[in-house]
Amino acid sequence: MSSLLSTLRSPFSPLREPGVKRQDFLASLVVFLVALPLCVGVAVASGVPAELGLVTGIVGGLVVGFLPGSALQVSGPAAGLTVLVFEAVQEFGLGMLGAIVLLTGALQIALGLLRCGRWFRAISVSVVQGMLAGIGLVLILGQLYTMAGAEQPRSGLDKIAGLPGLLADVLGDTTSLTAAALGLGTIAVLVLWPKLPAAVRVVPAPLAAVALATAVSAGLSLDVANVTVRGLVDAIQPPGFGDLAALGSVAVLGTVLAFTLIASAESLFSAAAVDRMHDGPRTHYDKELVAQGIGNATCGVLGALPMTAVIVRSSANVEAGARTPLSRILHGAWLLLFAVLLPAALGIIPLAALAGVLVHAGCKLIPVKEIVPLARAHRGEALVLATTAIAIVVTNMFEGVVLGLVLAVIKSAWDTSHVHLDVRELTGGRMVVTLTGNATFLRLPRILETLEGLPKDRPIELDLTAVRHLDHACRTTLENWAMRHNDSGTEAVRMKTASVTAERS
């Protein structure tokens, strides 16, 4: 018990230093102002009540904020899971979302207790970048429809195919054109905000963009759709026994695995990025995975959105001067106060403005600057990235990520299976074939092509002493080739290994 208390207490020890409490208090306000529009926007884009995004943000602050793992990163609803949540709600219904998130949290807790946190760091960076790029593309495509006040198609291909019709509808309808203009204006503010003077940039860009769009909409009485407000208590829908019983279906379990993989990977990659931004305590990845699992289990019980650690809010926390977890805890408290005291304020926010925020967030998920250098230096990695992203757009999140992981494993196996064949002819007509490197089944076609091209009426020696790895399939195939290659009457092929020279007749 004492060790647990010391673990919880140690990240808060800098609070004894003068000025740290004030720094954390101010940082919490900055994170709250960044988180507010993103929590609401992610919820609306996910097809759930806006209040559920705030619930997840509150849990990320008031629950995960107290838990050990990463002291400064902030958790809440993330744009990276928007597409997957939307698909899950469309397929299984809003009632099942809580059950899916609850099981996701339980799996994360189990993985953390089994010390699997560090293994998530072994996921190919190309797969992660491809996953984020695919999410970004689907997010952009879907929110373009929301920004124009139109219903978005279900599949990625349908969204792409419907863009010309969407453009025609926007140009031909005043209401759609007004909403689209408001969304484009929001994006323009987000793009231009970092270039304004530092005194102006004290207000976070997402909050400024949404606030300006809301003011324009209200001031000009624009005919655009706003966020629907239900109230915090009414929005919370804990999963029922029927929802929990339905967790056994294959389709639901596939969604749970996708939630677990993506939420865990995004959280732990975010933790690694946050560690590079400050000089404080490093992240304990297994504890962070348990903390995320407890947070998601809590969100599941409340029927809210899944959570991850979010790099935008985390970087804002570090840049604002936070020193302890107190800043992220307080940001959750501010979200709770807002949801309880000012829920009606959500009802005046235009949906087009939130869609603009998410289109901008989707663009930032696409690693445009890294793609060209990656393609020049590592074509295989660029292919994995592009294939993962395209597969997510064409199929769905889970299948796209699985395909990316399979391609990454195949590429890694191919890269490590380097083998070189050298054929030399000695005096007297004897031929020596030397293999070096890693001889695996992946290289068998090339090896056999060379060996089967050798003359069958000459003495041949197959030298394997320089082979670092020889798998079973390759050894068996080479032995069979040695037994059958030479004509009768010709000296049998000799196989020379590191330990013994063996003759196969």
Query: What is the straight-line distance between the termini?
Result: 71 Å
Question: Which sequence of strands runs across the widest sheet?
Answer: 3-4-5-6-7
Strand runs, count? 7
Give unreliable regions as ranges: 500-505
SS content category: alpha/beta
Please report the number of helical segments.
22
Mean pLDDT: 85
Q: What proportion strand?
A: 5-15%
N-to-C SSE series?
Answer: HHHEHHHHHHHHHHHEHHHHHHEEHEHEE
Helical residue percent band: 55-70%
Radius of gyration: 29 Å
| Shape type | elongated
Q: Report the sheet with the most strands, covering strand number, pairing sense and barrel closure.
A: 5 strands, mixed
Could you characterize the architecture of this molecule?
With 505 residues, the chain is α/β, with parallel strands linked by helices. Helices cover 62% and strands 8% of the residues. The protein has 22 helices and 7 strands. It has helices at residues 2-9, 20-45, 50-62, 82-92, 94-113, 125-147, 156-161, 163-172, 174-192, 205-219, 232-235, 241-245, 250-275, 285-301, 311-319, 326-341, 351-365, 368-377, 379-394, 397-416, 444-452, 472-484; strands at 74-76, 308-310, 419-425, 431-439, 460-470, 494-496, 501-503. The strands form 2 sheets. Strands 3-4-5-6-7 form a 5-stranded mixed beta sheet, covered by helices on one side. Strands 1-2 form a two-stranded antiparallel sheet. Strand 6 and strand 7 form a beta hairpin. The chain is elongated, with a radius of gyration of 29 Å. Mean pLDDT is 85; it is low at 500-505. It comes from Streptomyces rectiviolaceus. It is found in: Membrane.
